[in-house]
């Protein structure tokens, strides 16, 4: 059996060396090493040998198999590189032409608008700040003057990290932040006043999902605290922001709105950019609710060790996801987090 193996080896190596194309190599491989190949067949008869010869022959057979498959790999590389050389040397090949281009990534529309707005606010002397997505109850609620019995604190509105039975009500619970407003607290406690910041980021809520509600979405918080800050300053910042996002001035109006961390609080509406007298987007009213805001509540200033007699400020909470939908005419908020390439591919870099 050893002689037979030696013969298969030498013949095999010789025909591999002579092969001129991949098809030939494949045939040799099947013939020798395939399931019904010569060596495989030979190995099946190993059992007929005297027991003391079996291990030696078995080992030798494996060595032959390794040698042959190594030779096959080597020859394949040689054939591939000579095929490439031939192609390169052939007439009509121009190595200066660009190669095939793979699909290119783009910037997510939320990130694109976030970057634009960051630039805009940086140009107005604001800092861009960041806060954690997993936040203390204290920063998300208590320090923002949101009372213990406020509905936003319920488990059906907020995604809690701390289970209900472990919450002590002292602000030490942990939540996925429900808005970017806790960054107001973090920034004021860290930098004090005067302060001008914007804080874009992801927020999370327990929602029944539909075209305008998603459990994960984006907001951008704005906060200015200084001496003598009033509603006119706030309105100017809001109007500049809207002009920046929508690319033109829109008529705006303020309505009263309630948020525990501002007093007075407002809702800013803008004239619907899509119609003159009512359409689907503005639900016939001609106005679109764009952004809540207000003057920072004295309790918030106090919670951050500032004297409300000395300092005042304004804050606003832009629904980034919503404004990006408006700007690009995106009909369903769920596209943003869908990872769908047919959606994302519409926003090339
Ligand atoms: N944090 C509020 C929310 O998510 C939005 C908001 C309202 C932010 C008024 C503000 C503000 O800064 O002044 O519903």
Q: Which architecture of the largest domain per CATH? A: 2-Layer Sandwich
Classification by helices and strands: alpha+beta
Average pLDDT rating:
93
- How many beta-strand runs? 9
What overall form do the CA principal axes indicate? elongated
What is the straight-line distance between the termini? 66 Å
What is the helix content?
A: 25-40%
CATH third-level topology of the largest domain: BirA Bifunctional Protein, domain 2
Strand content: 15-25%
CATH superfamily of the largest domain: Bira Bifunctional Protein, Domain 2
Question: Main beta sheet, described?
Answer: 7 strands, mixed
Gyration radius (Cα, Å) is: 35 Å
Quickly count the helices.
11
Low confidence ranges: none
CATH class term of the largest domain: Alpha Beta
Described by its quaternary structure, the protein is single chain
Strand order in the sheet with the most strands: 1-4-5-9-8-7-6
Order of secondary-structure elements: HHHHHEEHEHEEHEEEHEHH
The number of domains is 2
Which cofactor or ligand species appear? 3,4-dihydroxyphenylalanine
């Amino acid at each position: 059996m050893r002689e037979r193996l030696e013969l298969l080896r030498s013949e095999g190596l010789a025909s591999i060396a002579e092969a001129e194309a991949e098809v030939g190599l494949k045939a040799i491989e099947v013939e020798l090493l395939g399931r019904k190949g010569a060596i495989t067949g030979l190995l099946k008869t190993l059992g007929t040998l005297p027991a003391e010869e079996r291990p030696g022959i078995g080992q030798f057979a494996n060595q032959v198999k390794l040698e042959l498959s190594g030779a096959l790999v080597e020859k394949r590389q040689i054939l591939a590189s000579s095929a490439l050389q031939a192609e390169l040397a052939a007439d009509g090949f121009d190595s200066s032409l660009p190669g095939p281009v793979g699909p290119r990534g783009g910037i997510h529309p939320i990130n694109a608008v976030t970057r634009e707005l960051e630039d805009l606010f940086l140009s107005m002397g604001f800092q861009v700040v960041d806060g954690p997505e997993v936040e203390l109850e204290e920063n998300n609620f208590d320090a923002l003057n949101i009372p213990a019995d406020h509905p936003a604190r319920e488990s059906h509105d907020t995604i809690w990290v701390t289970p209900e039975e472990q919450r002590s009500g002292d602000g030490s619970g942990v939540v996925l932040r429900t808005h970017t407003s806790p960054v107001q607290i973090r920034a004021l406690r860290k930098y004090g006043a005067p302060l001008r910041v914007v804080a874009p980021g992801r927020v999370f809520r327990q929602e029944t999902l539909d075209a305008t509600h998603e459990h994960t979405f984006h907001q951008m918080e704005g906060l200015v605290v200084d001496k003598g800050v009033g509603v006119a300053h706030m309105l100017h910042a809001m109007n500049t922001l809207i002009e920046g996002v929508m690319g033109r001035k829109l008529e705006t109006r303020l309505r009263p709105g309630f948020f525990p961390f501002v007093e007075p609080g407002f809702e800013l509406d803008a004239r619907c950019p899509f119609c003159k007298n009512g359409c689907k987007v503005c639900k016939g009213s001609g106005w679109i609710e764009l952004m809540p805001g207000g003057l920072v509540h004295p309790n918030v200033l106090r919670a951050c060790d500032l004297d409300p007699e000395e300092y005042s400020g304004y804050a606003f909470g832009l629904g980034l996801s919503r404004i990006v939908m408006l700007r690009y005419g995106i009909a369903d908020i769920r596209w943003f987090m869908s990872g769908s390439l047919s959606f994302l591919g519409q926003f090339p870099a």
